[in-house]
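User: Here's a chain of 248 residues. Predict its fold as tokens.
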Amino acid sequence: MIDTHCHIDEEDEYDEILKDDFNNGVLIKIVSFCDVVNYDFALFLASKYNGIYLTLGFHPEYADFINYENLLYLENTIVNNKKIIGIGEIGLDYHYDNSNKNKQIELFKKQIELSIKLDLPIVVHSRDSVLDTINILSQYKNIRGVIHCFNDSLEDALKYIDMGFYLGIGGIITFKNSNLFNIIKNIGLSNVVLETDSPYLAPVPVRGKKNSSKNIIFIASKIAEILDISVDDVLDKTSKNAKRVFDL
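Assistant: Prediction complete.
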């Protein structure tokens, strides 16, 4: 199994977490680090564990603080480490406060342009900002990546797919009132990758608990139920998608 999006904190018991995940069949974890203060720990993790890969970037919540030097440091860090396989999570988040919209958009565009320069996929965070996200992405050619934690409409899903993006499907699909059921029914698995966003968004039947990558099996099982196919088929197709988009 491949978890295409998760988080690990330096204060976690990461050796035990990773051992448990690997023992439960999660052989590849793509860990996202979106704050420059955590980059050293990210590089340490990637160097210590064979199955760990990284995406690095600046989350929109830091838009007020990121400067040219930070972006240059990001670029240099990526160039000098082959286990960094994407830029993310980056994007827009208007959920709590959109007063710094322009700064978020500027930071998003600069990181998209960096991804084009370095020929890397992006991992897009979009919360209460789907119209601006689609509008910005549509301005660029030769971009690719994953829409992290996708939970928008079928129409939006098709727009992202038409631009060449994959949809990151996580624990939300197991929630009782999730709209992802209809979307998966309509789009199938051609543009889907699996993610947990652990330690957040634990799926049913462990909802409300601390999430981990091993719970990706519950996400795969729900998709298999929706599409009336085997869990192995879901894991096979989504793993191939993950390897394709991240060039694994």
